[in-house]
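user: can you give me the structure for this one chain? tokens are fine.
assistant: on it. calling the predictor now.
[tool input]
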Amino acid sequence: MSDDSIEHSLGQDLYIGVDIGGTKIGVCIGNYEALIFREIRFPTKTQPKVVIEDISKAIRFLISEYRGDLKAIGIICGGPLDANKGIIQSPPNLPEWIDIPIVKILQREFDIPIYLQNDANACALAEWKWGNGRGCKNMIFLTFGTGLGAGLILSGRLYNGHSGLAGEVGHIRISDHGSICYGKKGSWESYCSGTGISAMYKDHFNEQLSAKEICRLAEQGDKKALYIIDISATYLGKGLALLMDILNPEKIVIGSIFTRSESLFRSSMEKSIHKEALEQTSRDCLVLPSLLGEALGDMAALGLAMSGNLDQEQ
């Protein structure tokens, strides 16, 4: 934080973005030009009540430090959730978050518009506006973080589906094997997520490591880590081939783990795509890391605060 950024915020319309992840929370404040003045990070605790209290404290601190006109708060979180009712329903990466009315809870304290949206949808819109999806009419964003979800931009518009659950691709069964996720073996998320990579390593080698640690070991040439990453990358390509053949996008942008460790995944992923997808759909689709990188969650949450109801975006 600098005195210049505080001074710069005076008199401006300001927005708060909240990114609720399976392992960490990010709360940031910025302006309509998506200039982020300050972000606060802290671990995601188990109990929703405690996490929401931590979020409230962070928001209060940012409001006290940056004295512009606070217009709205945007909250992004893994699905499933009900964006219209402001309820986080039951994300697999947040096991105790069952039907939590987070918008209603926060609006008791902050009397401004508060919006909730699936993180994949919000990130898709952020990459489409400011990142590697710019200029596309048809693109897909994949989270590939603690969990796996997709945001779909189709015909130049965010696609939510009939029940608002479009893009829950982590649920797709892609194998008859693998760890149990979403109550069944072989879901795409069980191979292509931080949780899935960690579980695969434990299943194969009886050792508990985080996905970040496994990627670090793989970059150092560790054979066990490389073996697990190769499995993940192969199934990543298999799932991408399905998306290419079904939706025929111009680009698929992948965040988090893929963005940080693209070189580990690229070769096996592409081999799998070429094996599984139609030649033309794979040739016509670019698979790219997030251009916004580590700022993506902040930008997505701020974008939601600015835009409000994302399904109205053109």
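assistant: here you go. The CA atoms of residues 190 and 196 lie 4 Å apart. The domain at 3-121+295-312 is CATH 3.30.420.40 (Nucleotidyltransferase; domain 5).
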